[in-house]
Amino acid sequence: MFAAPAAAQGVQQTKGNYEDKFRQLDEVLPDPSATRNASGAPGHQYWQQKVDYRIAATLDEARRRLTARATVRYTNNSPDSLPWLWMQLDQNIFKRDSMAELTDAFGGAGRRGPKVTLGSGSEPTKLSMEELRRQQAMADNDYGYDIDAVTTLNGGKLPHTIVGTLMRIDLSQPLAPGQSTEFAIDWAFNIVEEDAVNARSGYENFPDDPKKGGNDIFLLAQWFPRMVAYSDYEGWHNKEFLGRGEFTLEFGDYAVDLTVPADHIVAGTGMVQNPDEVLTSAQRQRLETAKTADAPVFIVTPAEAAAAESGTARGTKTWKFAAANVRDFAWASSRKFMWDAQGVKQPGAENETVLAMSFWPKEGGELWRKYSTAAVVHTLKVYSRFSFDYPYPTAQSVNGPVGGMEYPMITFNGPRTTLNKDGTRTYSLAEKMFLVGVVIHEIGHIYFPMTVNSDERQWTWMDEGINSFLDSVAGYEWDPNMPWTRSLPRDMIPYMVSTTQQPIMTQSDSVNDLGSNAYGKPSAAYHLLRDTIIGRERFDFALKEYARRWKFKRPTPADFFRTIEEASGTDLDWFWRGWFYTTDHVDISLDSIYRMKMDSKDPDIDLARRRRERADEPGLVGVRLNEEQGLPIWVMENPGVTDFYDKNDEFTVTPKDTKAYTDFLAGLAPWERAAFDRAVKEDANYYVLNFSNKGGLVMPIILGLTFKDGSKEKLSIPAEIWRRNSREVAKLLVYPKGKELAEVVVDPEWETGDADIENNQYPRRIIPSRIEAFKDEAAKSRVSRDLMGEAAGAEPDKKKK
């Protein structure tokens, strides 16, 4: 048979109103290669670069300025010769003329920061106090990197060109495959006030602390020039940093010396190499005790933190950190920090004891003492089940001005307690949920993307989606009665039916509602795969295989899609296409149900049944009204006009009917007679259910079935039922005699995120609602206010007019 060209086949697929939602993704995904094979695993020629850093930095607390020098060793493991290197200068996003600032549309959704309102109709354009504060901070300070020198190790200058948040370093000769080069860079920058500028790092001042001028917490991230990633699928990942799209980085080894005020406690990526120089003997002993403790142990006690807050620092200390095979380095420094730790055992792992640790000021109170390190421990245990043993020696949660941000071995988390007038500190359920949830989420990021190193600048959903899914799993295992949100299919209905929804595959900086698009909707997709489509055992196996394959490597969406399919043994192209590439939503309507019974062909049986069915039909209204009026009936008053038809109706059996029945039986083949006789004997109930797909997203049809005898069943019909017609489909269900359907509900447990549950019921239910009594509110405009009474100081009696 002649095969049509591919282009013609593509036209045929969409001709008319036919749409093949089950066609394969091969036309969209990149071709497999020697670096990324068709199964979704790294290919036999997979490679990635390596970057090692040796950094010495000094924190000037008074000036809130950082000065540093780094020696960078870059190893080219690619097959390409590189004439230049690119570095990320993320602090340059805070320059007044940065692309991020210049393209920050007023009222837009792109920036992490205070919201403003663009006027419309009678509503004025508004600036919040927070936005005014940000504008003033940007005007009053010079932010961004001061690059003092880029040199070879012997001091020779290296030509370099700064392009926004990027810098190109021109090499004297191309770096050949397998070779390494080293260079030095000196820089400094003014640290942003995080509460004013709204960044991923910065300082926070506590003016009410006992010390004159207060105390600060410093959270330092994106604080050093970092090498841009170079990959097999994109080359240099030199996308400008605009704020939304985060980072993609290279793994390497770090040795970092941090010089800070002598009374500061420092938390950082890696392990402290000189505890004898920066910790007291008591603190070192507590740290040793914590490794085998069953509960968190204070390393820096509340009393020690309080003494440091009210004291005066003299001189500096240098904290030395080392971290192997990490993609980034972040740290925090403050004299306000309390510090606790607890060891987590991983028998047989590379790091058999992981120190789960938390650092927080007194403002964190009992909330942090009770829940932060406990949440770290819980996260490690849950996430390791779904991926791999935690790969590093420590996992840290640090309180500061950043609401939630992740880096290798260290996370920044924001919730705190409320100070009451009597000096006590309390917290709401929302703050408790926020702390437990954000710690789980940010510590979870150490697995994804700090270890499974996806490209956050391009695809936020690759790490945020998996992490939101796993943090919800961990959250429900922590306490299923806490109202966790934004992770299940049912949570995503408002977004998925909105006109602002974008495909998940949208580039990070172009996404409007990042929380719904990159966090919630992918998480909901994975819950659907795990609990409804694939099943827990196979999905968990596939996710763990993906994590194992891409541990310390850089996966792409195609690698993820292919691995989940290959490891679970499930063709999911229809799912990826619909859920990740379109803005369709789930809305399956159960439009009608037909019940069928088997005709026996025996006129004595079938015609008697039809007579009963006719008798069960509603009578004629006019006849009923005639009876109520007492009108006479002619044939009853004149019996002489009656005949055969007054005693025999249309359902009377005749010899012709009987002969037709015997002829029908005689004409059946033996197998036909056997099937017919069995069907008549069983007298089963046949139901045809008619569905329409109103939302466009094909999904399994999950049915909750209730029978007249009170019994219930759940039936799941795979999504492939839509493969030939994605708009409407009918399904036959057969039940034995006496098993009659009373009610059918589509998606009875709300597991698919069906947007309209009212068309899921058959028969249709009465839609529940409430009557809410209310009074019209008084007009709030100044014209409508009693300004005369207000000026006179009058307080109106609201009970009287």
TrEMBL record:
<keyword id="KW-0645">Protease</keyword>
<feature type="compositionally biased region" description="Basic and acidic residues">
    <location>
        <begin position="778"/>
        <end position="788"/>
    </location>
</feature>
<dbReference type="GO" id="GO:0043171">
    <property type="term" value="P:peptide catabolic process"/>
</dbReference>
<keyword id="KW-0031">Aminopeptidase</keyword>
<dbReference type="GO" id="GO:0042277">
    <property type="term" value="F:peptide binding"/>
</dbReference>
<dbReference type="GO" id="GO:0005737">
    <property type="term" value="C:cytoplasm"/>
</dbReference>
<dbReference type="GO" id="GO:0005615">
    <property type="term" value="C:extracellular space"/>
</dbReference>
<dbReference type="InterPro" id="IPR027268">
    <property type="entry name" value="Peptidase_M4/M1_CTD_sf"/>
</dbReference>
<dbReference type="Pfam" id="PF01433">
    <property type="entry name" value="Peptidase_M1"/>
</dbReference>
<protein>
    <submittedName>
        <fullName>Aminopeptidase</fullName>
    </submittedName>
</protein>
<dbReference type="GO" id="GO:0008270">
    <property type="term" value="F:zinc ion binding"/>
</dbReference>
<keyword id="KW-0378">Hydrolase</keyword>
<dbReference type="InterPro" id="IPR050344">
    <property type="entry name" value="Peptidase_M1_aminopeptidases"/>
</dbReference>
<feature type="domain" description="Peptidase M1 membrane alanine aminopeptidase">
    <location>
        <begin position="377"/>
        <end position="579"/>
    </location>
</feature>
<feature type="region of interest" description="Disordered">
    <location>
        <begin position="778"/>
        <end position="801"/>
    </location>
</feature>
<dbReference type="GO" id="GO:0070006">
    <property type="term" value="F:metalloaminopeptidase activity"/>
</dbReference>
<dbReference type="InterPro" id="IPR014782">
    <property type="entry name" value="Peptidase_M1_dom"/>
</dbReference>
<dbReference type="GO" id="GO:0016020">
    <property type="term" value="C:membrane"/>
</dbReference>
